[in-house]
Design brief:
By secondary structure, the protein is of the alpha/beta class. It folds into 2 domains: 111 residues, Alpha-Beta Complex (Aspartate Aminotransferase, domain 1); 235 residues, 3-Layer(aba) Sandwich (Aspartate Aminotransferase, domain 2), CATH 3.40.640. It is built from 12 helices and 13 strands. It has a 7-stranded mixed sheet, with helices on both faces. Strands 9-10-13-12 form a 4-stranded antiparallel sheet. Strands 1-11 form a two-stranded parallel ribbon. α8 links the parallel β5 and β6. α2 packs antiparallel against α9 and α3 crosses α9. The model has no long low-confidence stretch (mean pLDDT 96). The chain binds pyridoxal-5'-phosphate (PLP). The site of pyridoxal-5'-phosphate (PLP) has 11 residues, from α4. Pyridoxal-5'-phosphate binds next to α4.
Length: 387
């Protein structure tokens, strides 16, 4: 069998596109909301349900499934499998992370403006313990690393932010920012990885990030309900564990230990696992990760950069700007179009079968690796009609 061409314009991506039946019906540019499922993921889910209804359901719960899932996700996130706890949503991970910290009155948490609520509300639990929350940057504008650093005070114990902002598309520098925060005395750095994981390589082990949580449903296709929480290795033993369960101890791998009441927790982030993980979700997401395995994180990022350069060229030719310029190092796979009458344009795009989102009074375009130049031509065609 010949190897597929994995370069950004290679046939691997054309074949990949053919796996999404939804794309025969419309032009999909709304991944920051949710990703359509490719057929191999649907087949994995169908097969699971078939066995659960017609076969021996016990055979589905192979104890190797969570380990394999963790190992594969770790490769995508640039960390070790032991750094990852299984969670059911980004929020689930961030809630566990916030509850791991022994907050004290006088602690301060700094968050950017315009955050997705998954970043904001878990800190209500820190506030209940006496911490205060301050916001950095300006409402309605991308919040930069400099603005976050400028908002710190001597009391700032923690900073939380989305790696990629759902509302502006600004991608934070995961290497330099956490490093600079730590140098300024910040103890904990929390990251919502939802809008970046699966497209960009966060190289977590090389960063000073303490917690990084995402759910596989947007840029990593899955049926929703499974994700991971990265916990920095030197925190495993020092922090309290807010999710102690039978999945925190070896009983989950060795059923002969089920009635042993004196087990020690895993010496890894697995001590944050909260009970039996959602199996069918892991099976679905694993099918997606296997599909993209030949490209790997580097191939995916290269493909996305090629698509963003293409989109940038089309939008420039049409005279349309984006909130975060597409030639910026902070660009991401989320672009907010600066157009008048965004709601009208959004509706016109939808009527033409081009699916985008309306966020913060702008049209949000969020392509994934399966998109093609023709998709951007269609988008720009509608933009031009307006002029
Ligand atoms: C930045 C960000 N974080 C989190 C979420 C969803 O959070 P959860 O996985 O807790 O439902 C979204 C959804 O749009 C998001 O954009």
């Amino acid at each position: 069998m010949t190897q597929p061409d994995l370069s950004p314009r290679g046939d691997f991506w054309n074949r990949h596109r053919g796996l999404y039946p939804a794309l025969e019906r419309f032009t999909y540019l709304n991944n920051a909301s949710i990703q359509p499922l490719p057929t191999p993921v649907a087949e994995a889910l169908h097969s699971f349900v078939r066995t659960a209804t017609e076969g021996d359901p016990d055979t589905l719960y192979d104890s190797g499934v969570p380990g394999r899932f963790r190992t594969t996700v770790a490769r995508w996130l640039g960390c070790s499998e032991g750094d990852l706890a299984l969670v059911t949503s980004t929020s689930d991970g961030l809630i566990k992370a916030v509850n791991s910290v022994p907050w004290a009155p006088g602690d301060e948490v700094v968050l950017p403006h315009n955050e997705f609520p998954s970043v904001v509300y878990p800190f209500r639990m820190a506030q209940a313990a006496g911490a205060s929350v301050r916001f950095a940057g300006r409402p309605g504008r991308p919040v930069t690393e400099e603005e976050l650093l400028a908002a710190l005070s001597p009391k700032t114990r923690a900073v939380a932010f989305s790696w990629v902002s759902f509302s502006t598309g600004y991608k934070m520098d995961l290497l330099e920012l956490p490093r600079a925060l730590k140098a300024r005395g910040v103890e904990f750095v929390f990251v919502d990885g939802m809008q970046g994981a699966g497209v960009w390589d966060p190289a977590l082990s090389r960063t000073d990030v303490d917690f990084f949580s995402f759910q596989a449903v947007k840029w990593v296709a899955g049926p929703g309900g499974i994700g991971t929480l990265y916990v920095r290795p030197d925190l495993w033993r020092s922090l309290q564990n807010p999710a102690f369960s039978w999945y925190s101890v070896p009983a989950c791998d060795d059923l002969s230990l089920l009635t042993d009441t004196g087990l020690e927790p895993f010496d890894s982030a697995r001590r944050w696992d909260g009970g039996t993980p959602p199996w069918i979700q892991m099976v679905g997401v694993q099918a997606y990760l296997d599909l993209l395995e030949p490209a790997g994180p580097a191939g995916i990022a290269a493909r996305m950069n090629f698509l963003l350069d293409t989109l940038r060229g089309r939008l420039e030719a049409a005279g349309v700007k984006t909130l975060v310029p597409l030639d910026s190092p902070h660009r991401s796979s989320i672009a907010l179009l600066e157009v008048p009458d965004a709601a009208v344009l959004h509706a016109r795009l939808k009527a033409a079968g081009i699916l985008t989102a309306l966020r913060m009074g702008r049209v949000r375009v969020s392509p994934h690796v399966y998109n093609r130049e023709e998709d951007f031509d269609r988008l720009v065609g509608i933009l031009a009609e307006r002029a």
